[in-house]
Design a protein that fits this description.
Layout: E1 5-7, E2 19-28, E3 47-54, E4 60-62, E5 64-66, H1 68-72, H2 83-99, E6 107-111, H3 117-124, E7 128-132, H4 136-144, E8 149-150, H5 156-166, E9 169-175, H6 184-194, E10 195-206, H7 208-213, E11 226-227, H8 230-239, E12 242-250, E13 256-263, H9 272-284, H10 289-315, E14 320-323, H11 327-335, E15 346-347, E16 365-366, H12 369-374, E17 378-381, H13 387-393, H14 395-399, E18 403-406, E19 412-413
Parallel strand pairs: 6-7, 6-9, 7-8, 9-10, 14-15, 14-17, 15-16, 17-18
Antiparallel strand pairs: 1-5, 2-3, 3-4, 4-11, 10-13, 12-13, 18-19
Helix pairs in contact: 2-3, 5-6
């Protein structure tokens, strides 16, 4: 076993030990471990990427845990570079403030606050804000831009310090974080420690319903330890002194769940969305291991379709590039076996990734100007959840005769 990784033997939500592996993906390096040219000769460690189903509570999860310092301390993903996410977070902040009548001047704490994009929306609405994020450079940059951010992992002790210094929080948020943490019980302990009696905890996670229905297997990578559905979350939160009061579906990341919880016995009624979500999950069979074994067969079929298409084009001398280097591209490239022999380079709009090479495969990441310079025949949209805006923004490529390939949810040539 690597010194940077261990495999747990119990469900991280209920502690159960009756676990079945339902999907084995190709082992990969950490999905965001982009490499500068100077480090191309250094080997990159790959870690298992196996998905397990808990028969006791129906939670779906990775049991292989990579050291979070390896994953997050030099993080390169920032939400503020995506106009789609900036709009999403603005609507999110507006909704929470209106739905729960959060008074101006209230404290809002964001766990895993990244570059402070969400907190800046709350700050504009007159809230006091506090970010927490272990990515040191991103945290320092957010603080410099007026969003106070503690560069650390969220713990009950840190939560208590914030409460002492700033008072109780009316709102605690955690976006695409509640799936990233091995010790979820510790996170909930921290939320209880900082949350006001009538406060709400709002979290967004990739939703297992969407992962299943849209074959979003590439959202499975080492940062995402948990693939949440509502049934196991109700039980988990109740066992930890909290109550799920809303389970709302939102569009981000190809389909996410926005959960809202309060302290047990809090003032807010439980919305109909919770029962509706449970009914949908049961109808889809997400409480049965067999459902995910079928899902694994669907993924193999997509792999065959895309592989045949790209290898056929390559054999005809076509130049193929990728568009978008999100974390999930690492899973897709590895599991579908698409290396630099197939994809010549990848375009990404983030200056933090340009000039680097993809994790493990070492495909170069270039700015958008490379499309005109290198003239690929096809662009595989690896950030497929943004396929529409990407294709609209690069209409010139299509007008010049180029074609887009969207790999998921269905393989499509546009």
């Amino acid at each position: 076993m690597s010194r940077h990784h261990h495999r747990r033997s119990t469900c991280r939500l209920c502690g159960g030990t009756h676990l079945t592996m339902v999907l084995g993906l190709a082992p990969t390096p950490p999905a965001n471990a982009f490499v500068p040219a100077a480090d191309l000769d250094k080997p990159q460690e790959r870690f298992p990427l196996d998905l397990f189903f808990c028969h006791d509570c129906a939670h779906v999860q990775l049991l292989d845990v990579v050291d979070p310092r390896v994953l997050f301390e030099n993080y390169v993903y920032v939400s503020g570079t995506s106009p789609v996410f900036v709009r999403h977070f603005q609507a999110y902040a507006d909704d929470v403030i209106a739905r729960f009548r959060v008074p101006a001047g209230s404290l809002v704490v964001d766990v895993g606050s990244n570059d402070g994009t969400l907190l800046s929306c709350f700050a504009k609405a007159g809230m006091r804000v506090q970010g927490i994020d272990p990515a040191r450079d991103i945290a320092a940059d957010a603080t410099a831009r007026g969003i106070p951010t503690i560069a650390d992992f969220f713990t009950p002790a840190l939560a208590a310090q914030i409460r002492t210094a700033k008072g109780a929080a009316k709102v605690v948020t955690a976006n695409n974080v509640f799936a990233h943490v091995d010790d979820l019980t510790g996170v909930v302990d921290g939320i209880r420690a900082v949350l006001d009696d009538d406060g709400v905890f709002v979290f967004e996670v990739s939703y297992l319903v969407d992962v299943f229905e849209k074959t979003l297997f590439d959202t499975i990578y080492h940062e995402h330890l948990a693939y949440h559905s509502v049934q196991p979350l109700i039980r988990f939160l109740a066992a930890n002194g909290m109550e799920l009061i809303e389970a709302l579906r939102v569009d981000s990341h190809g389909g996410s769940l926005r959960g809202v919880a309060q302290l047990q016995g809090g003032p807010h009624p439980v919305g109909q969305s919770v029962a509706d979500a449970v009914a949908l999950e049961r109808r889809l069979g997400l409480d049965k291991a067999e459902t995910f074994l079928d899902f694994a067969r669907d993924i193999d079929e997509r792999k065959r379709q895309l592989g045949d298409l790209l290898r056929g084009l390559k054999a005809c001398g076509k130049r193929i590039a990728g568009f978008g280097a999100p974390a999930k591209a690492t899973t897709l490239l590895y599991h579908f076996d698409l290396g630099p022999d197939i994809i010549d380079f990848i375009i990404d709009d983030s200056p933090l990734k340009q000039g680097l090479f993809t994790p493990g495969m070492h495909i170069p990441v270039l700015p958008g100007s490379a499309i005109a310079e290198k003239k690929p025949d096809y662009l595989v949209v690896l950030a497929w959840n943004f396929a529409q805006p990407i294709m609209e923004k690069n209409a010139g490529f299509r007008e010049a005769g180029g074609k887009f390939i969207v790999p998921l949810p269905q393989v499509e040539v546009v």
